[in-house]
């Protein structure tokens, strides 16, 4: 479940072993790998069937994958050979929503907060809905080369005019690990307080504002459509919070009015898309919209969802599997915050879809472990136009990886929650290593 920030900060200040990266300026053009990991289960997420037990990293990218014998030809005198000892390596996670700046304001230390995210296997994250002040803070850290993670800053759409007319942001391009691809807009609220905008009424309850309550949008449709049009005209991405299916209907209507289509490849992102209907997925496909889900809500709020919306709508929430079956891109770390995401919990939740009362919610929508991993890395990379560099462990792509204590593909689905992140690697370099039990005990007061 979500991690408490204050407790996490205290723990990591005492126990974490972290190595901060600087940009790699190596001009070494020899075929020798910098690092070779072998004797492990390496899940590349690429569309191939061969078994991978070894991987070579060179200059921050994957150099080779395959068997130990095959990859060993890249071993040189200075190559570091690391025995995975049966552990599992996967592509690192990409968080589609993180509230990074909010956590940074609370903690006050850019290194500590990045370590917290690295401890969750996250090497790229989106910082959603920030203001100009928070963006300036991130730019200062970027200019000072203090960013270890790739941070995708997404300011509130209210900041668009000033940022588009200014010259401080090169949209869509990384500058010292910081990128601004577009803007954020919230169209509705959450189901927990009856502010998610629904096409059909909530279940009758004396706490409702009025009978047949469906909630309402946070802005008039005309204002939303004009804002959407401005973002499109500036050739930027719009990241829209839409929890309820009525909010999603409005987005779809605006998309058709603006003559969007998948061929334009604009990839506007509908964050949460939580209570969408199946027929809306087909509209996403036609318009080129991307869904960013978060299945951890099923455990946190499942029983409450049933009470507020009824069993059918509650069961159908966050339909990632249906999106995949329709060949639609969909990611699964869109954690609404403000605490730190728990990535292994999110992985477990998408495979099991279990509530706190241990009831399965939407059994037909449970993901396979392979699908669940893809939703947290490969699919998320597509969401940010980064699929050519991230999301798979294949030659040429960034060496962004995680070492896990166990293989989610081979253990019982219910045990996925017990997997631990041993190490996080960013561009071939370790940025987080889980403290050993002995060092943790020694450091405890």
UniProtKB/TrEMBL annotation:
Gene3D superfamilies: Metal-dependent hydrolases, Urease, subunit C, domain 1. Pfam families: Amidohydro_3. It comes from the Bacteria. Residues 105-432 form the Amidohydrolase domain. PANTHER family: IMIDAZOLONEPROPIONASE, PROTEIN LONG AFTER FAR-RED 3. This is Amidohydrolase family protein. The lineage of its organism: Bacteria, Pseudomonadati, Pseudomonadota, Gammaproteobacteria, Vibrionales.
């Amino acid at each position: 479940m979500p991690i408490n920030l204050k407790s996490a900060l205290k723990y990591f200040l005492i126990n974490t072993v972290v190595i901060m990266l600087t940009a790699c300026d190596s001009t070494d053009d020899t075929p020798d790998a910098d690092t070779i990991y072998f004797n492990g289960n390496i899940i590349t997420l690429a569309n191939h069937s061969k078994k991978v037990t070894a991987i070579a990293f060179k200059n921050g990218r994957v150099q080779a994958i395959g068997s130990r014998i095959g990859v060993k030809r890249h071993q040189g005198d200075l190559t570091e050979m690391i025995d995975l000892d049966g552990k599992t390596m996967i592509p690192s996670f990409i968080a589609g929503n993180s509230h990074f700046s909010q956590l940074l304001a609370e903690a006050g230390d850019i290194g500590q907060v990045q370590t917290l995210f690295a401890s969750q296997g996250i090497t790229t994250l989106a910082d959603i809905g920030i203001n100009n002040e928070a963006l300036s803070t991130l730019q200062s850290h970027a200019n000072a080369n203090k960013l270890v993670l790739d941070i995708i800053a997404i300011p509130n759409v209210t900041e668009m005019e000033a940022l588009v007319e200014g010259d401080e942001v090169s949209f869509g391009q990384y500058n010292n690990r910081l990128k601004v691809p577009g803007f954020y807009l919230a169209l509705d609220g959450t189901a927990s307080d009856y502010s998610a905008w629904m096409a059909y009424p909530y279940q009758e309850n004396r706490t409702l504002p009025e009978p047949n309550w469906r909630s309402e949008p946070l802005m008039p449709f005309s204002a939303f459509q004009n804002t959407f049009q401005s973002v499109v005209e500036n050739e930027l991405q719009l990241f829209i919070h839409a929890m309820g299916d009525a909010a999603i209907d409005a987005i779809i209507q605006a998309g058709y009015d603006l003559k969007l289509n998948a061929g334009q490849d604009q990839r506007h992102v509908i964050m949460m898309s939580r209570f969408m209907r199946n027929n809306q997925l087909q509209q996403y496909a036609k318009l080129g919209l991307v869904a960013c889900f978060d299945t951890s809500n099923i455990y946190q709020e499942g029983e409450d969802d049933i009470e507020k919306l009824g069993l059918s709508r509650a069961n159908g929430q966050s339909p990632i599997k249906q999106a995949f079956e329709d060949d639609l891109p969909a990611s699964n770390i869109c954690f609404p915050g403000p605490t730190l995401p728990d990535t292994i919990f999110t992985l477990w939740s998408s495979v099991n879809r279990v509530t706190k009362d241990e009831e399965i919610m939407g059994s037909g929508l449970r993901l396979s472990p392979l699908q669940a991993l893809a939703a947290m890395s490969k699919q998320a990379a597509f969401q940010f136009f980064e699929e050519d560099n991230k999301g798979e462990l294949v030659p040429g792509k960034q060496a962004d990886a995680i070492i896990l204590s166990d293989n989610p593909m081979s253990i019982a689905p219910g045990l996925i929650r017990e997997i631990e992140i041993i190490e996080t690697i960013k561009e071939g370099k370790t940025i987080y290593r889980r403290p050993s039990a002995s060092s943790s005990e020694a450091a405890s007061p």
